[in-house]
Amino acid sequence: MSPPFTINDLWAISPEMVLTTAAIILLILDFLLPPGRRAVVGYTGLLGIGATFAALGASAGVRAEAFSGMYLSDPFTLFFKTIFLLIAALIILISLNYLSVEGVDQGEYYALVLFATVGMMIMAASGDLLSLYIGLETMSLSIYVLAGFLRKDRRSNEAALKYLLMGAFSSGILLYGMTLLYGLSGSTNLKAISRTLAAQDLHNPALTLAMILLAAGFGFKIATVPFHMYLPDAYEGAPTSVTAFMSVGPKAAGFAVLLRVFLLAIPSLQGSWVQLFYVLSVLTMTVGNVVAIAQKNIKRMLAYSSIAHVGYLLIGLVAGSPLGISAILLYLLVYILMNVGAFAMVILLCRQGLRGDQIEDFSGLAQKSPLAAATMLIFLLSLAGIPPTGGFVAKFYVFGAAIKAGYVLLAVIAVVNTAISLFYYMRVAMVMYMREEPSPITALSPSRPLHWALAIAILGILIIGVYPGPFLGWAWVSLTGLL
User: Fold this and answer.
1) N or C terminus: fewer CB in 10 A for the chain?
2) Cα(189)–Cα(47) distance, integer angstroms
3) What are the domain boundaries of the chain?
4) What is the mean pLDDT of residues 473-480?
């Protein structure tokens, strides 16, 4: 019989408790404040994130297993909780003015962002399949609502419906895989599953099927090919700030649980799942980059770009070494900054009646605002992996880990795909700097919080690109909670 929870268990989940309390306070504030003061809810949400950072810092040096091993507090968890809070803060900053432009300035939006972040934090800290699934559904249900937040917009409704249907389907597949693992091991605890399976026949077809179902379920969550079909439509139809959130939050959380499950629960099957992820990596980066070339909507282009980046991230998992896994963590940090920054630039062009989500909307931006054009160019260069940006450093370490592990062909394929990606990234740069036809957008968003988010993203990308050592060291230290 499991012992009852103690005060130490509550201390371990104090960041989640603080953030959940903040989200509830936002709902109450939204009810009390008049419609014209809803921005106060957003700023209060930022205070809640700050308080959660403080709670996270207080438990930073603690390594513990809470709630009978269902919840893990370790450096790996700390890393992901930190980047989840960074994501939430950036999304609130880029949303403060954008919601007013879209006519949906409602306080529950910020509460949903915080609830989704709580779900991500639970996912990263899960040491048990049950707590993992609870965190996954907490995150997913919040994002389903956010994707359809423009209730009078048919594209937003379509995005929410597609994301809901595919999310439910993938959750079912994931549950089948978890059920098989439970049936084979007699436990839902990841470490207990690992110990039990290590003594069993690894050629058991049921075990292989469980591995495939888990890979497919997580593949839907992080949008690997061929589980990516819903993503471009969902990204295009959802509000741009939500698209930015969807493009980084669920992917980072997906990789957190992917690493937990495959490296902690079924490391004995590494010889099999490495081959599976090798194929998925090649397919994902190639399809993402090739299809992105044909896109005229920048949100769809960035959707396929994000699919390609998932392919690059899987290279680190294929390598399977500490260098490869730490490179994944570094890549995720950079990916968050450059992807949120790119979508923030789309919001910068968004005005009443104009969404700024077509590539042609960036025409002549260098003449209208050289600073804005230079900012977008840095994001594009980082996405393409050009020095001295963080994107180059992230790809350098991921590709280097593959070569060091003996996967030279995979690294070559990744480099070729990087060259392909230059075409569609630089097409946006060409439109900004060389297109003479004026854009219908005559003014940029005056939102200061949006400008702060862009500044944070730019500084982060350039600092990591020039001085990556501390960030790679942080990622390396985080592995002590995983390997």
Assistant:
1) N
2) 35
3) 1-171+226-257, 269-483
4) 86
Name residues whose C-beta falls within 8 Å of residue 247's C-beta, 6 or more positions apart in sequence: 235, 302, 303, 306, 339, 340, 343
Confidence at residue 403, expressed as pLDDT on a 0 to 100 scale:
94
Sign of the dihedral defined by the CA atoms of residues 266, 270, 276, 280, in that order: positive
Owner of token pair 């058991």 = 204
Task: Give the number of other Cβ atoms within 10 Å of residue 7's Cβ.
Answer: 7
DSSP annotation of 214 = H
Residue 167: per-residue pLDDT: 84
In sequence order, the 6+-apart residues with CB closer than 8 A to the CB of 113 are 45, 88, 91, 92, 95, 142, 146, 245
- What is the distance, to the nearest Å, from the Cα of residue 96 to the centroid of all Cα atoms in its chain? 21
Mean pLDDT value of segment 368-396: 91
Structure tokens that stand for 457 in this block: 């993203």
pLDDT the model gives residue 256: 92
CA–CA separation, 143 vs 163, rounded Å?
Answer: 9
Residue 356, classed as helix, strand or coil, is coil
322-348 and 75-95 are packed helices; what angle lies between their axes, rounded to 10 degrees? 10
The SS3 call for residue 72 is strand
pLDDT of residue 1: 45
Provide the H-helix boundaries in 321-389. 322-348, 365-368, 370-384
Q: Answer whether the bond into residue 226 is a cis peptide, omega within 30°.
A: yes
Q: Is the pLDDT of residue 2 over 60?
A: no
What tokens does 316 get?
């680190």
Instruction: Please enumerate in sequence order all residues whose Cβ is within 8 A of that of 50, keeping only pairs 6 or more positions apart, or say none.
Output: none
